[in-house]
Amino acid sequence: MQPATPAMVQPNDPTEVHFFEQLQRTVGERNFDHWFNKKITLACDGEELSIGVGSPFLLTWMQKQFQRPLTEVAQSIYGPAVSVRLQVDSSLVLTEKSGTNVPPKKSKKKSPKTAERQVAQRTTGGRTPQSRRFADLAEFVPGSSNELALTASRQVCEAPGEKFNPLFLHGGVGIGKTHLLEGIYRSVRREFPQLQVMYLTSEAFTNFFTQALREHTLPSFRRRFRNVDVLLVDDVDFLESKRAIQEEFLHTFKQLESHGRQIVLTCDRHPRLLTKMSDELTTRCLSGLVCRIESPQLETRRKIVKLKAGRLKAEITTEALNFIAERFRNNVRELEGALNCLSTYSHMTGKRVGVTVARRVLADLERDCIRVVRMTDVEQAVSRFFGVPTDDLRSSRRHRSVSRPRMLAMFLARKLTQAAYSEIGQYFGGRNHSTVMSAERNVKGWLEQGTPIDVASQSWPLEEVLEALEQQLMAG
């Protein structure tokens, strides 16, 4: 039953206007006026379009009658990756006395899905699920560690497909890669509503591809991904070791690039360090602009902490905020976690949090988060990174492809485990302490001289190799 006085007004967003115009052409003017015009609500989070209707009866009816045309129109307007979900919207006030637009009832028995949604509404107080909120570039805190990546992202938003194609953003966890990617999505959608923009993770791409293989719908899958104007893919390193999916992604990449469509990728490391990625896909990632995002510097961390503390509305002194910025150096997520901890403490006690309280409360947090690195962890990380069997790292082989990774493993074991030289030497093939000391001196010398090291038949700066290995080890 539709409301006598619909709660929805005419859409003002250009994309929604296009959606309703296309929907009217698809379902016909009569069906459109009867079921959709001013009688539904829309909410799109980039991956899912939620369509609100006025009652559980309408939900079942419209799922049966209009799910397919709604999906086709949504994918043509919002992009081929979007899915459609119909739901009851409590803001659409029902009037039982209207007596119009009642779908025919075949059975009083509720479908499992309808019953499940009604239970979910009762348990959430009738609230509808909130759509995903994409980050905004305007909220990204600039600094020396990220200014190149931020500038490139802004230029991509100004002219998609004309500069830096592809744009490849890489760096450790929690330092802003996804924020930039979401900011590009949001900005391009706002400035170019006529473009089809797709945002997804490489895991989602993999899932879509395997589903298409299973259901024998590869042509539909390819149309879905190769006709977009802007493709934004997060965590592309997930594709490593997945040859069939890499091949499909490469063809998608080539199709979009040849037609001047914008591609932006994020990864935890430089393309050349993706040792299990195909050579052609790696070189295509290198063909545009590769930007490294580093951990934020102290001044940038202070700005981030101040900005996020303002949103929490907790009473935390400037000295306590500076302590957080000085103490938590690795990434933004650590800063957010520390702030949330102090904010909760402030609300719990009703007191203002000063630096003394911050030291005490956050000391417990740091103690609980200590990561203990063992020599077996170092050995396995180096083995995976260089593709060298662990038995070779402990063997007497002296070929450079084995001896250099072995020396790096000894260097990292000494730095991260604080084990004795003799203990490290014994672990790596029964060597004496002088061999480990020599390995440590060699690695330090290579770092001072800027000596590169071979990874997957390519030369790469040793400093970045060590940084990538340390990040893997400290992340667990």
SSE topology:
Blueprint: H1 14-27, H2 29-36, E1 41-44, E2 48-53, H3 56-78, E3 83-88, H4 112-123, H5 147-158, E4 167-171, H6 177-191, E5 197-201, H7 202-215, H8 218-226, E6 230-234, H9 243-258, E7 262-267, H10 279-286, E8 289-293, H11 298-312, H12 318-327, H13 332-349, H14 355-368, H15 375-386, H16 390-394, H17 400-417, H18 421-427, H19 433-449, E9 452-455, E10 458-461, H20 462-475
Parallel strand pairs: 2-3, 4-7, 4-8, 5-6, 6-7
Antiparallel strand pairs: 1-2, 9-10
Helix pairs in contact: 1-2, 1-3, 5-6, 11-12, 11-13, 12-14, 13-14, 15-17, 17-19, 18-19
In short:
The protein is α/β, with parallel strands linked by helices. 55% of the residues lie in helices and 11% in strands.
Strand order of the largest sheet: 5-6-7-4-8
Average pLDDT, to the nearest integer?
83
Largest sheet: 5 strands, parallel
The fold-level CATH name of the largest domain is: Rossmann fold
Give an account of the 3D structure.
With 476 residues, the protein is an alpha/beta fold. It has four domains: 14-123, DnaA, N-terminal domain (GMP Synthetase, Chain A, domain 3); 137-293, 3-Layer(aba) Sandwich (Rossmann fold); 298-368, Helicase, Ruva Protein, domain 3 (Orthogonal Bundle); 375-475, DnaA protein, C-terminal DNA-binding domain (Chromosomal Replication Initiator Protein Dnaa, Chain: A, Orthogonal Bundle). Helices cover 55% and strands 11% of the residues. Helix 1 packs across helix 3. The longest helix is centred in the N-terminal third of the chain and has 23 residues, at 56-78. Residues 1-10, 94-100 and 104-129 have low confidence and may be disordered.
